[in-house]
Amino acid sequence: MSSDYGYFKEKILALTGFDLHSYKEKQIRRRLGTLMQSLGVDNFRAYYEILKKEPQHLERFFQRATINVSEFFRNPERFRELQETHLPALLARKGRPRVWSAGTSTGEEAYTLAIILSEAIPHYSGIILATDVDQEALQFAQEGIYPPGRLRHLPPGHLEKYFLAAGENYQIKDKIKSRVRFKRHDLLRGPFGRGFDLILCRNVVIYFTEEAKDKIYRGFTQALNPGGILFTGATEQIFASRDLGLINLSPFFYQKN
Ligand SMILES: C[S@@+](CC[C@H](N)C(=O)[O-])C[C@H]1O[C@@H](n2cnc3c(N)ncnc32)[C@H](O)[C@@H]1O
Fold first, then answer.
1. For ligand 1, is residue 69 a contact (CB within 6 Å)?
2. Cβ(216)–Cβ(193) under 8 Å?
3. What is the reported pTM?
4. Which of 87, 102, 157, 234 fits as disulfide partner to 75, beta carbons 3.0 to 4.6 Å?
5. For the chain, which domains are there?
6. Is the CB of 107 under 6 A from ligand 1?
């Protein structure tokens, strides 16, 4: 079974360019296991044959392998810290910061940033880059329609100000939507350009091996301008931040020297 998985990883890389070697094996096996069961296969070779012959199953494979859970103002106390402490300092240095939401999933994080920047800068007209490897998640993000549960941490007044009712769901208003550009990008292939002042990469690297994590964080450091900030997820402290050339401002905020 384990060489089966080795074969699968190589074949998927050749077929799609997606590198499973960098993901924690146990998690991927568990997540794909249920999907394989539903297709009536019990080994990775047979599963690969299905993916090769019936590309429609590839979408579900991507969805299962990469987890898409997100919400607006995820860990609200951290976004408050960003708004009250780090963003004002950043804006004092640079009026129009370049911002990237990496592993943005279904768009909540990128739109949260657009809301925060609109609150901080009157007539905000910058563009936030939002990337993910999962095309389906990006399509959802582009539509911008969310069930109420994803909005539970919105600060008071923001629902009325930034959303329109859409049946039982809520649609992000165009003035926020137009501030975000969604693009497909695989973080394992390096950063999406350079010259960023703020990068968010939250709840993404938890699925990666230590080696892949290190590579991704090094990429972010290269992509940041001096003084730029990396904002990580609530369980994703970078212990070797100094080696990367990052100053630890507080547990989940890092600044490039
Ligand atoms: C749990 S979501 C995090 C969403 C958001 N950042 C948040 O904290 O709410 C993890 C996202 O990482 C994306 N992801 C996984 N591997 C990736 C890769 N190699 N490159 C880019 N995105 C990736 C997944 O597709 C998924 O949308």
1. yes
2. no
3. 0.90
4. 234
5. 2-65 (1.10.155), 76-256 (3.40.50.150)
6. no
